[in-house]
Amino acid sequence: MHAEAPIVITDIAGRKVTVQRPVKRVLLGEGRQLLAMSLLHPESVSLLAGWPADLVRQDPTTYGRYRERFPAIERVPIVGQGSADTFSIEQALAVRPDVAVLSGGYGPSVASADVVSRLEKAGIPVVFIDFMARPLVNTAPSVAILGQVLGREKEAQAYIDFYNSHRQRIADRLAQAAPKIPTVLMHAHAGLGACCNAPSKATIGAFIDAAGGHNIAADVLKTPFGQLNLEYVLSKNPDVYIGTGGIHLAGKGGLVMGPGIDETVARKTLAEVVARPDLADLTAVRNGRVYGLWHIFNNNPANFLAVEVLAKWLHPELFADIDPEASLKELNDRFLPVEMQGTYWIELTRSEEGHDAGP
């Protein structure tokens, strides 16, 4: 295909969208999707026409690292604060993008009909991707869509092959071994509020099934996330406790982990969460099967790392040879212009091997 020819892309919402390439100015509906663009393009910041402030506000560590590498990021126009209701269509139109890439996590979604209509009426094609609603289903096709938009199909396919190979080795081994399936409580934003906010089968909860676990919240929740009452959690008494956390929980009594966070901080805050009376009596806590996972894996094309980590936690003998740290290193070395550095997973008690957290 000639680089200057228009291309018809089927986006993740099933919409056929005509995009004129080469695309030089991208409007992001969600700032953190810069990380997905960066997998495919080493100078992704140079393509930003405008973006919301969610990455700037919610992950200042990652933003700061991108700013060190790409100082021009400070001059990218802000078109919203990181939510659908603060997204300014006037500001979005003013930055004159070649294409708008929307995802619905912290910005306009497929339900934002007015935003989509006004962009399209101004001649700006709108393309939807998704790493959050159905992460394990939509990550590979979303990366492929970004590759088409950016004219980086080869790079997109390289990442998809890498991603699928890591996913497949977990799936194949589970299918072959058919191990006993442990029950799991995934406590979302652990330590923030009463026990227990939890995901169902969608979003971050999808990783539990993929790693060979049974999510106790999925038995009762009808929504992607919901509140489990303590009586239910105690009655199910899950085999494994997994708290999710992030830097957004710093100073709020929650599990603090993610970019720039030392593993000692993550382990300490995890210990404080499960020491509370509502959780301390769980069998998982008494048996030391307590773990922490970076919550933003629920909106990140590197979510295969979460599946690898969970598989090791849920089936330590079956996946003894799987090394998520090595996978993260390969991701950084091969694909990312700005490395992921921090604590993205943690065990409450240090394993004998010492492979208990991201670098």
Question: How would you characterize the overall build of this protein?
Answer:
By secondary structure, the chain is an alpha/beta fold. Helices cover 37% and strands 15% of the residues. It contains 14 helices and 15 strands. It has a five-stranded mixed sheet, with helices on both faces. It has a four-stranded parallel sheet with strand order 4-3-5-6. β5 (99-102), α5 and β6 form a beta-alpha-beta unit. α6 runs antiparallel to α7 and α7 (153-177) packs parallel to α13 (304-314). The longest helix is centred in the middle third of the chain and has 25 residues, at 153-177. The protein is globular. The chain starts with 5 loop residues before the first strand and ends in a 12-residue tail after the last strand.
